[in-house]
Amino acid sequence: MPLTDLTHAELLAFRPEVQEPADFDAFWRRTIAEARAAGGTAELTPADTPVTQLIVEDLVFPGFGGEPVRAWVSRPLHADGPLPAVVQFQGYGGGRGLAGENVAWALAGYVHVFVDTRGQGSGWGSGGDTPDPHGSGPATPGVMTRGIHSPETYYYRRVYTDAVRAVDATRDLPFVDASRIAVTGGSQGGGIALAAAALSDGVAAAMPDVAFLCAFRRGVEVAGGGPYLELATYLSVHRDEVADVFRTVSYFDGVNFARRIHVPTLFSVALMDTVVPPSTTFAAYNHLAAEDRAIEVYPFNDHEGGGAAQWRAQAGWLAARFGA
């Protein structure tokens, strides 16, 4: 398989200018404030699972507009005192899956909050449980163009807000050390993690893997497959909407969130990735405001990235920062 993008040396220097709306911060302050003002309370109930050596619970918390979003919360069965937490977001098309299916972080001694993605969960994996009760104007199949005509209606406004509210709910769990909360995710989940790290109160570390939703225009222009092509298909039909579409997605671009992230951050990238061009991930990484930052590079991997090897790298990196 050939390299799909720039060489490693070129990627290290790749720092493109990405459109940033003048009201970017005001837009997100208002959006998050409205979601918090919508109210609602989080509820935690025992999950139906054969797992017996961990506590696994079903969390329902208020997301965008106060609408219910679900997550699995897994934690060690016997633990003294509040624990550090890892809030994880899912990749494109996937959901939170089955209770007890994803428990590696809990086995490593963390409270693991695995967040469902509204309106997804039927593309692969074991399913999701969170609907997205909002309509859309003309769009291509998938979620990339839902509500694309305005940042107010764009699908990822709801998803990113859900992510912030997931961190809010995690911070309020009595068994969580609110000073040690990390966010993570792969692909779409990595892009969501960047937004959560930039917009949330109290995130102490971020670990985005093969992060999607960064440098949108570059992704649309060079991706060989995957969700970026939904935008390309839409624009091939709606030829007069190019400027408007890229203005909308600029409010959701991981590069603009990276500029606002100051906590320790560990990225990963795969140089033969056909879905998330490595230059889009490096665009975010190279704009990162954090001083404590690192990126794991997998030269011969596609979109699977580092897989379990990357999780081991994350676990060691996070333990060094959280003292876990």
Explain what the structure shows.
With about 325 residues, this protein is an alpha/beta fold. The protein has one domain (about 10-135, about 155-225, about 255-320): Rossmann fold (3-Layer(aba) Sandwich), CATH 3.40.50. The chain contains 11 helices and 9 strands. The chain has a 9-stranded mixed sheet with strand order 1-2-3-5-4-6-7-8-9, with helices on both faces. Helix 6 crosses helix 7 (about 230-235). The longest helix has 17 residues, at about 155-170. The radius of gyration is 18 Å and the shape is globular. The termini are far apart.
Outline the fold blueprint.
Elements: H1 8-12, H2 24-37, E1 43-46, E2 54-62, E3 68-76, E4 83-89, H3 104-107, E5 111-115, H4 155-171, E6 176-186, H5 188-199, E7 203-209, H6 216-222, H7 228-237, H8 242-250, H9 254-258, E8 265-270, H10 278-286, E9 293-298, H11 307-322
Parallel strand pairs: 4-5, 4-6, 6-7, 7-8, 8-9
Antiparallel strand pairs: 1-2, 2-3, 3-5
Helix pairs in contact: 2-4, 4-5, 6-7
